[in-house]
Every structure is written in structure tokens, then in C-alpha cells.
Write a structure and sequence with these properties.
The chain is of the alpha+beta class. It is 18% helix and 33% strand. The strands form 4 sheets. Strands 3, 4, 5, 6, 7, 8, 9, 10 and 13 form a 9-stranded mixed beta sheet that branches. It has a 5-stranded mixed beta sheet with strand order 14-15-16-17-18.
Length: 311
């Protein structure tokens, strides 16, 4: 049971029990909220030690040798979670901390759909939620970063959980279905934060949309790309990446993006943000589907499409 697992000190080193998990195509840690420091500064210091990011300032090229982080933003996520029991039932309450390998800043402003898919399994494995006799296991998740409620569903079999493969991950693993409730305006309060379906920024038509996460959507062709370039090809094109960054920074400013405490983000803060706005390049689909998509998170190109980005 999770209640028996508490932090302890040994030879002047604090030890905290954590679950290191993969959710979708993201990896990170999940900590039981009850054992985390109440003080935000102490909590952030714990996270920096845990994930292996700089304790202060910048550290270009940091490989996170001493921590659980693995370089990209998709592998530098930590959830604090606990079960809240009310008169209407129980739900899991989650708070996401987004870290980055090269600096000490921690972003508390957004949720992560991919890592959220690990929360139900975590709650079941820790005993905080009991397995039911039903074939389908349900769990409601409330995210404090965005206020969005998600319903998580897993199916059990005689052997354990129903399994499923996903692109970009080897093998088959316990399948999780997520249903986001009322995700529109999760960060800005509006579907179209600029008030327009299309804005022209840096001479390019873009759509600024807030569904689960603020995103700048742009046609790959308008940036001189097919939309089918690999992550490596796009990353190597520094002229393209610099132009794209100018677009998303200006778009983020036009969307009036804010910190978790309500302060408007400056142009410089948007430029170095690890979380907002997300960017999506779109092109015509060639092999079924409706769109070809390349997703950015925003400092690094993403090898897949995140749950929030899919919304």
C-alpha cells in the first residue's frame, strides 16, 4: 500500500518513493502528493534533483546522467497525484511539473495527455484505487494545472489488462482510453484566443486554437515544406526553425498567454517556454487519414502527435 511508503533520510540524503512510468510516448515520474513537500521552493528543489536538471541557472548540453530525465521535454515530466474522496465518489487529482534538461525553470501551467494515461495504472498499482470486479475500470482525473476533467478507462482480462500497441513504442502494453471533458479554452479561456480563426503573422496565415493546450497551426507548404520531412531533416534546417520560432512567439504573444499565476508571458518567456504554445505543421494526407501532422512541443520536434495536440 502506498500509505506505508514515506520519505526517509539516510546519511544526510533524502529518499523519496517514486514511480517511473511511460504514458503514451512520454516518460516521467509520478509522486504521491501526500509525501511531497508543501513548500513550492522545496518541491521544485526535489524535482531538480530527481530529474537531474540544473539546481540553478543554465547547463547547456546536460545529459541528465544523475537523474531520471532523458533529454527531451517529453521525458522530463513529473506528476503529483492523489485520490480525492467526496460525497459523489472518488477521483484522482493531478498536478504536472514540466522540466527541461538544460535549465532550472519548472513550468506548472499545462497538463500532459500522454503522461495522464499512466495515472490510472499508477493508482491501481499503488492500491489507492481498488480494482473492481467489472471488466471495465473507470477513473475520473481532475488536473489542477488546467482545470480540465478527464475520464480514464482500462479493460481487464483474465490475464490482466487488455493490451495494445501504439506507433513509436515497441511491443504491446496496457491500453488506456482518455476522454477529455470540456477542454476548450483550457489555458486562455477561449477556443480562438486571438478572436480570429485565421491570423497573419510574419506574412504567414496561422490558426491560434486553444483546445487542451494553446496551439499554432500552420500549413507546411507556407513554410516551404512538404510536411513529410523527418524530425532530423526539419531540425537540421536552422533557417526554417528560426522562422518558425518567430511565428510561434508572435502568435503566443497575440494569444496573450499567461503564467500559472495569471501574469502575462513576455516575448522572451514565450521564446524559452517548454510548454506553450504548441506548434503543428499540417499537410494533405497521402496514406489515409485526413491530415498529415508534424507536432512541436515547442522547443523540440515531436516524433508523434500528443493527446492534447490531437484534440
Amino acid at each position: 500500500m502506498m500509505a506505508a511508503r514515506t520519505p526517509y533520510r539516510d546519511h544526510d540524503v533524502w529518499h523519496f518513493p517514486v514511480h517511473y512510468m511511460r504514458g503514451g510516448t512520454s516518460t516521467g515520474a509520478i509522486l504521491w502528493e501526500k509525501i511531497a513537500p508543501r513548500d513550492v521552493a522545496l518541491r521544485e528543489e526535489l524535482l531538480r534533483h530527481l530529474m537531474g536538471v540544473p539546481l540553478a541557472g543554465e547547463c547547456p548540453g546536460n545529459t541528465q546522467t544523475t537523474g531520471l530525465g532523458r533529454g527531451p521535454a517529453t521525458s522530463n515530466k513529473v506528476f503529483f497525484a492523489d485520490i480525492e474522496r467526496t460525497a459523489s465518489g472518488e477521483r484522482l487529482v493531478s498536478t504536472l511539473a514540466q522540466l527541461a534538461a538544460t535549465h532550472d525553470r519548472i513550468d506548472w501551467s499545462v497538463n500532459c495527455g500522454n503522461m495522464s494515461s499512466a495515472l490510472q495504472l499508477w493508482a491501481l498499482e499503488t492500491g489507492l484505487v481498488a480494482r473492481s470486479d467489472d471488466e471495465t475500470q473507470h477513473l475520473t482525473i481532475f488536473n489542477t494545472n488546467t482545470g480540465v476533467v478527464t475520464h480514464s478507462r482500462m479493460t481487464t482480462t483474465a490475464q490482466g489488462f487488455a493490451m495494445a500497441p501504439i506507433p513509436g513504442v515497441m511491443g504491446a502494453h496496457p491500453a488506456v482510453e482518455l476522454f477529455l471533458q470540456a477542454p476548450v479554452g483550457a489555458k486562455t479561456g477561449a477556443l480562438l484566443p486571438t478572436g480570429s480563426a485565421v491570423d497573419t503573422i510574419e506574412g504567414i496565415d496561422v490558426s491560434c486554437v486553444d483546445v487542451a493546450v494553446p496551439m499554432v497551426i500552420v500549413s507546411a507548404a507556407d513554410l516551404g515544406k512538404t510536411g513529410y520531412e523527418s524530425v532530423a531533416q526539419l531540425s537540421a534546417d536552422t533557417v526554417f526553425m528560426e522562422r518558425l520560432k518567430r511565428v510561434w512567439v508572435a502568435a503566443g504573444e497575440k494569444m496573450r498567454l499567461r503564467h500559472a499565476d495569471g501574469r502575462l508571458m513576455s516575448q522572451e518567456e514565450i521564446a524559452r517556454s517548454e510548454t506553450v504554445p504548441k506548434v503543428c505543421l499540417i499537410a494533405e494526407a497521402r496514406q489515409g487519414g485526413d491530415l498529415c501532422v508534424r507536432y512541436l512541443t515547442p522547443q523540440t520536434l515531436h516524433g508523434s502527435l500528443a493527446v492534447s495536440g490531437g484534440c
